[in-house]
Amino acid sequence: MKIDRIELREIRMELKNSFETSFGVTTERRMVLVSVYSEGLFGIGEVACGETPGYNHETTDTAWSILEDVIVPRVLGKSFEHPSDLEPVLHPIRGNHFTKAGLEMAVWDLAAKAANMPLWKYLGGVQTELPVGISVGIKKSPEALAEFVIEQEALGYKRIKLKIGPGRDVAFVTAARAALKPTTKLTSDANSAYTLADLEVLKALDGIGMQYMEQPLEYDDLVDHATLQKQIKTPICLDEPIHSVGDVRKAKELGSGSVINLKLGRVGGHLESQRIAKYCLENGIDLWAGGMLESGVGRAHNVAMQTQAGFTLASDTAPSSRYWSEDIIEPEIVMVNGITHPLEGIGLGVNLKNDLIHTFTARVATFK
Questions:
Q1: Per-residue pLDDT tens for 292-345?
Q2: N or C, fewer C-beta in 10 Å, the chain?
Q3: What is the pTM of this model?
Q4: How do residues 74-126 score in pLDDT, each as one tens digit?
């Protein structure tokens, strides 16, 4: 595959409902779609980092700059026999995993199309019934949260995850747990909002009955999480500090947690995701796919990724209609009785709604 053209396109999509976490409220998403072209075919990926450096250091604007000034010049006009051949080209660029993943995902889509295969099969996927969880933003009161999670439980979600933060934690999770069926899996996600000084709060959360407690401590920490895990029974799930299979190995050796939230962009794309899934499978670590409020492009890549054997828990691949009045792909991602299925079309398995994409477009750059 010789990459003869690359297009960057920033789109802006308004969420159906605002989404609040411990580091802010999101009402609109700005994503960069990356399209690569070769010999009459094209592949597409998505840079799904945040608009501000809240989740990690990357933003929509830094991603555009790094793509335009650093990554595109390294890739344009080059030939690759397999998507993994991108790794030595991108590896010298420190960090910027979401940015690199946007292009890497597009090349995987392109390669799957060249092989005339669905992307999920090209990635080595084997699972076809994928359990879906939902991520619930912070609500104004425990009562409002309880009412909301009852509605979501009725839709069939296999796991309900609650965003929490200081002052909006124990009472909120307790209310949700009491409102849900005892068999419904419930988890929390603090997005790094606590420290070990908040141990009493974390111990109170430990007694509520959750499947796991996600990223309670600092975004780059593994050591303090190991200290916390020794003092609570609820398994800790790691998110932000996991950028590679090496980080998963370190977390296992330290005892920092026994569950991994794998975000495709955060680890740099499909190749590293394959390595992490394999390691987790071989070492008995529970694994699931997290989300970043992606458009349908990123969501379809997430679905393809989680067909691999290492994924064991319900993932954040809720239907397109959960977040968008209309998504930019067809068919949209759907869920039936808490299950979604991999897309069987060639490559990513979707068609783009180009008229809608043009409506959402804020800027475009094409490189030949």
A1: 999 999 999 999 999 999 999 999 999 999 999 999 999 999 999 999 999 999
A2: C
A3: 0.95
A4: 999 999 999 999 999 999 999 999 999 999 999 999 999 999 999 999 999 99
Q: Give yes or no: residues 67 and 154 share one domain.
A: no
Question: Which residues fall within 8 angstroms of residue 207, CB to CB, at 6 or more apart?
Answer: none
DSSP category for residue 244: S
Q: Could you give the residue numbers annotated as active site?
A: 163, 263
Where in the chain does DSSP place strands (E)?
5-21, 24-38, 41-47, 130-131, 133-136, 159-163, 185-189, 213-214, 236-238, 259-262, 286-289, 329-330, 339-340, 351-352, 361-367
Q: What is the CATH number of the domain that holds 40?
A: 3.30.390.10
- Answer whether residue 345 is part of any domain: no
Whether 62 and 126 share a structural domain:
no
- CATH number of the domain encompassing residue 273: 3.20.20.120
